[in-house]
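User: Predict the structure for this protein chain, please.
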Amino acid sequence: MTYKVIKLDKRYSGYTRFAYLIEPVTRDVYQSRQQINDWRDWCWSTFGPGMERDWACAMLHINKIPNAIWAWDTEHGNKRIYLKSNAELVLFKLKW
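Assistant: Here is the predicted structure, written as structure tokens:
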């Protein structure tokens, strides 16, 4: 399955916390759900625990989790993984 990488800017939620978002490129709902689940499992085992994007951004503002490296967003039909920097993106691309 293929995916697209988007460099975040002010148009995207989470741009203050993360540099990239990754989402599957398919119209098949089952495949995209499976892919996001596989990516989330891999990120969890590679980078450590993550959380939903909105939670990660809120925690940044109260300085509770200053080093969140990745997050996900599955609200409103989104199927996205967020990565903090180029280093995480390179590892993701090497794996997937």
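DSSP finds three helices and five strands in the chain.
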